[in-house]
Structure formats: C-alpha cells, structure tokens
Amino acid sequence: MATETVMPTDEKGLAELLSKVAKDAAEKAITAMKADRTPATPTGQAVRDAAIGTPGLETETEMRDEKNPGIRVSRFIATLALANVHQRTPVEYAKHLASHDRRYSEIVPHIEKAMSAGVGSEGGYGVPTPLYADFIDLLRPRVVCRAAGATVIPVPSGVLNMGRMDSGATATYVGENVVGNASQPALGQLQFSAKKLLCLIPLSNDFIRRAQAGAEAMVQKELRARAAIREDLAFLRGDGGSNTPRGLLSLTAAGNQIAQTAVPSLANTLLDVGRLMNLLDQANTPMIKPAWAFHPRTKNWLLTLRDGVGRLQFYDEMMQGKFFGLPYFTSTQIPINLTPGTTSEIYLFDASEFLIGDTMQLQVEAVNGAAYVDSTGTLVSGFSADQTVLKLVSEHDTLLQHSTSCAILTGVTWGA
Fold first, then answer.
1. 260-282 exposure pattern, b = at least 16 Cβ within 10 A, e = fewer
2. Which helix (H) or strand (E) holds 73?
3. Quick one: pLDDT at residue 186?
4. Could you give the C-alpha distances from 335 to 43, 181, 263, in angstroms and in order?
5. What is the distance between the alpha carbons of residues 294 and 324, in angstroms, rounded to a whole number?
6. pLDDT of residue 42
7. Residue 77 in contact with residue 134, Cβ under 8 Å?
8. Geometric angle at alpha carbon 367, from 111 and 396, rounded to 5°
9. The dihedral sign for the CA sequence 307, 312, 315, 317
C-alpha cells in the first residue's frame, strides 16, 4: 500500500519538506547530465547496423541494389578477386565480408555452392544459376537484341537441333465428291553450336587492397564495357567466322537487304522506312516484338529532321522511345564508316524471332599476376604490373528463326 505524504502544518516542517524536494530534484538533474556526457560503447553488431541498417530492414543502399542489375554477380566475382589477393579461401573471405556488410550474406551460399562444385571445364568456378540471370540483366541494356526482347533458349550441352517450318500446309476449297490434293509443310532445321565468349578483366591489386568496397563497382563497369559491347557487336554483325556467332546482318536473307534511296530527305526517308516495313509484312513476320536498331548518328538526324514548314517530323515520338510506332535502340557497334567511308545500316526486325541459345553458365577465375594480351595486342605481365586478372567464360549461339524476319537498309548516309 502506498504511503501518503503528510503535509506539515508548521512553518519549520514545511520549509524542511521543500528543501528535501529541491535537493532530490537537483540530484536527478546532475545524474541525467552525467549520463548525457558518458559516451556509449556500441557493440560490433551495432556499428554494422549503423553502417548498413538494422537487420530485417532495407537500407537505402540495399534498395538501390534491387534496381542495379548485375550488382550481385559483380559482388560474387569481386569476392573471388579479393580472396585471391588477401590469400584467403573464397568462402572464408565471403564470410569475412558478410560480417561487416550484410549485403554479402546472400553471396556466401553462392560461393559455397560454387566451391563445392569444383573447377569447371574452362577453369575457374561456375556462377550459380540465380547469379547468371543477374549477369544477363547486366548485359541486357547494352545489347540491342537482348534489350529488344530476343528469345533465349537454354542449351546446357552447347549443341541443339531444332525444327523449323519453312512453309506451311495449304488448304483449298473443293466441290462435292471432288478429291482434294494433300499438301505437306516444308520443314527446315536450326542448329545451335555454342561459341565461347572470353572476357579478361585486369584489376590493380593496389585498388583491390585499398578500395575494397569499390571492387564490385569496378567489376560491374568492366563487364558492361567488355562483355556487353562484344556481345552486341556479335549479335548485330557477327559473320560466324573466328568462332563467333552469326548476327542479324549475316542471318538476314539477301533479298531483305536494300540500299538507301538517293540523297537523304524527308520524302526519301519515308519511302525507305515504308520499304523496310513492307518487306517484313510480305514475309508474314509475326511482329511480336518488332524493333529498330541504328547508330546514334542516325537517331540524331531523325530527331532534327523537319518538314517543309519547319516542324520537327519525328522528335516528339522519338523522345518517347518510338519510331513509326515501334521501339528503337541505338548502338555504336553499327558502323558509320562502311564503304564508301561514311555509310551505315538500319535494322528492322522481330526480336522474338532472334534466338539466343545459351548454355546458362558463366565460369569465373581470378589469378594474381597472370599474363594477358591487352587491346593493342601487347603482352602484359600481371606479376610485374601487380594485377589480378579475372577470366570470365560464357557460351552461346544465335539464329534467326526465319531469314526474312529482319530487313536492313544499307548505304545509309543520314546525318553523315
């Protein structure tokens, strides 16, 4: 039972009570001030939580990761490089990184799985399937055919034969008691034979040691700059030689490759665009995912093309990512220096008919001090340069389901 405070009735007792209350209040104030001045000693987990957020809650960085294609596979590859430089096993180093940054926690099981699978046929470790999908997401914005919606067919063995109907069975009207003529569809065959894409990424060991957090961003940047650009070139203009896939230019029927009409003008532009669209219509192309592809020079010329009274003809539509109602993509892998020196090409194709046979595998290896040949053909010693070389190997092949599913305008001088 609570004890009631009896208020004194005399002046002396009242003064003593007020003095006691004031003293207690002062002592509490002093204790509170001391507590404010005493620095807290956070635990290691508290420090990590402050840096990367409370467990169970998404930090701003983690939310950015969700919108950053390729960051997870880049983190996986960077971990291999970091482990190599610091002379630790990949699993050990992945767990070390995860103890400081929980974003690496999801990489640990992938590293463990890759290590348990052992070294692949091409050397290095296989990137687990979920991270391979992240690798493709990284490439997609920079590879026109992937961005346009090409059909990806898993080919784990690297070789696949697939049937194709070149022409269908026919149907006729017949009279009573009249025997109809039977017809057979004409069948063809498509064959995928995986081609190897080798990507070498030299990284400075000083950078890896001193800028650990930036290693994944550097890997991501290099994958875009090397693997994506090379794949884009192969898918557009590869001729099938030198162990490369055949691209749209090589796969398109000769009759669907037509020359630009005379001098560039609005009238001739409209004429040539109509010719390309007519070629696909006449071939009964499904046009499930139709798209244009051209060089940025061509895009910029179209953006500034005016009609007879000075109005921009295509500007508004193209600022919405469309040209003649269809999405367009640009690539610097489409040349602007073809014979006679300043010509280019324009592609109109149904991306759903462009088939990518993919082994769905990516082999990764990190070697400290490895020698490699740079872009100028010079042999570089990674040991002397204090570099770690990342080797990535992916395999795929490309086919066009029907050779008339693409139309190409050649000799293009728009904007030259």
1. bbeebeeeebeebbeebbebbee
2. helix 71-85
3. 62
4. 58, 50, 19
5. 14
6. 45
7. no
8. 70
9. negative
Residue 50 pLDDT class (50, 70, 90 cuts): very low
Structural domains in the chain?
Answer: 60-155+194-238+365-397 (no CATH), 248-357+399-412 (3.30.2320.10)
pLDDT in the model for residue 6: 55
Higher-pLDDT residue of 296, 191: 296
* Pick from 220, 222, 218, 216: nearest CA to 199: 222
- State residue 175's pLDDT score: 78
With cut-offs at 50, 70 and 90, classify the pLDDT of residue 272: very high
* Residue 402 DSSP label: S
Region at 208 (left for phi over 0; alpha for psi -120 to 50; beta for the rest): alpha
**39 DSSP assignment:** -
pLDDT, one tens digit per residue, over 143-154 is 999 999 999 999
Residue 178: pLDDT above 90? Answer: no
Nearest CA to 80 out of 368, 370, 373 is that of: 368
d(CA 130, CA 148): 22
Phi, psi of 345 (to 5 degrees): -140, 155
The long-range contacts involving 126-133, CB below 8 angstroms and separated by at least 24 positions, are: 126/361, 126/362, 126/363, 126/364, 127/73, 127/76, 127/77, 127/361, 127/362, 127/363, 127/364, 129/360, 131/72, 131/73, 131/76, 131/362, 132/73, 132/360, 132/361, 132/362
Residue with the two structure tokens 């890997």: 219
Nearest to 383 by CA among 205, 125, 201: 205
Neighbours of 318 (CB within 10 A): 18
* DSSP-based three-state secondary structure for 323: strand
Dist CA 362 CA 199 (whole Å): 11
Cα–Cα distance, 360 to 141 (Å, whole number): 18
48 pLDDT above the threshold of 70:
no
pTM: predicted TM-score of the whole model, two decimal places: 0.78
Q: Are strands 344-350 and 406-412 parallel, antiparallel or unpaired?
A: antiparallel
Would you say 336 and 342 are in contact if contact means Cβ atoms under 8 Å apart?
Answer: yes
212 has pLDDT over 90 = no
Asked if the model's pLDDT at residue 243 lies above 50, the reply is yes
Give the single-character DSSP code of 40: -
> Contact at 8 Å (CB) between 301 and 294?
no
